[in-house]
Fold this sequence. Notes:
Helix content is about 50%, strand content about 10%. By secondary structure, it is an alpha/beta fold.
Amino acid sequence: MMTDSATASPSLHVEVLSLPEAMPGTVFSAIDVLQLAALVLKLRNRHVTPSLTWSVWVPQASPAMLTPAALAQLSSEPPLLAPVPERTLLVVPAVYAANALELPALAQKYPDVLARIAAHVQQGGALAVCATGLIFAAETGLLQQARLDAHWAFKSFFMRVVPQADFSASEAISVNGRLYSCVVPPAQSEMLIRVLHDCFDEEVAQSCARLLLFQPERQQMHSQQLSQQWLSRTADSPVFRAKQWLEMHVEQPYDLQELAAVASSSERTLLRHFRTVLGMSPLDYLHELRVQRAKVMLEISINSLQTIAHACGYANASTFSKLFRRATGISPGEYRQAHTLRTKRSRWRVETER
């Protein structure tokens, strides 16, 4: 039984630090992720009190990068009843620095920020730092024994400043307890989606990832559905030719004899090679392709189950539903309810002034 993520999610409040030296894009991109997550929650149940809130934090005596009106507009609307959030997150953006030696001077310029970060983590809050913003975590002693990576231009500096840390990680995003960090600003959205996954709502995070991060399989599949222009036959191995043909004819009935002819192989040889290379039969692979197409259509379209079943090569919705449940563990309706990225049809009508 699927649960409504809007009601099951723990409440999370996020503060996005804004400094004059901050890279503006890392401030705004953090808010973009939060606004999208809130939109996904609202699409699922607009009547539930928001469980995700955020605000832009400008330290005292710091020149504001944004006007008060802009700060208010970028922050979420607080719920009518504002209980203490179950979880909190502080986002530290990347900062501009001409060289590594400028970083500690910049961080020490804001003692209230350093004190706030230390207290925030001590009280159980999570911290997400982007690129050069890592200096604030270093100055507050949060990198001790951490395993992470830093931008190549500043890596040797951080290794000298925090010798107890392990900077051998090769990933763009690192997680050390409640400390999240990313090496470069373009990785910040993915880092914050990881935070939402760990600290807030897994399904909301997955929806944000599908919308914000590049999805090559979905891009290709959706383009094929729109254009109906399939890739031409290649002269590669029989398994590759059969695999390509199945991917281009997902909606067509399965015919092993035809598939073997396309692959320039006998049926028996194709089955043996297919299992050796992919660990499954061509029919099993076709079912996987159909389930993936069905997932995308359930997420992004309002088509009926019968229409989706037909588009995925099944004669009726009943057969499609059984196979979908067998593959995913839930029904197509439950999957759509949990992962849909569209509003319900009943909410389409817009009230106009008379």
